[in-house]
Specification:
Radius of gyration: 13 Å
Distance between the termini: 26 Å
Number of helices: 5
Shape: globular
Strand content: under 5%
Number of strands: 2
């Protein structure tokens, strides 16, 4: 595992319950400019292995990236269980809930 991947994993694990972060913000904090896709790859390939709170990572505009039928409903439910409000169109108020 690369040092960058380790940093991304640590940053994702550090997102507290009831808060969210964006793919891009995590990448930037890990030292990657324009590295949102790398965050996506880490989440996709390592969430289960490292018990990552994958549901707390969303797009920078507050929207849920996953399509219906591919985890979107589960992500919304997990966020709501933690007190994160998700609008009918699948958006989170980043000013209120972002770390």
């Amino acid at each position: 595992m690369t040092e960058t991947t380790s940093r991304i994993i640590s940053l994702i694990k550090a997102i507290p319950r009831g808060k969210v972060s964006s793919y891009g913000r995590i990448a930037l904090a890990a030292g990657l400019r324009n590295g949102a896709r790398q965050t996506v790859r880490v989440l996709h390939s390592m969430s289960e292995k490292h018990d990552l709170p994958w549901h707390r990572v969303i797009r920078s505009d507050g929207s849920i990236a996953l399509p219906e039928g591919a985890g979107r409903e589960l992500q919304i439910a997990l966020l709501q269980e933690e007190g994160v409000e998700v609008s009918e169109d699948g958006k989170v108020d980043m000013r209120r809930f972002e770390v």
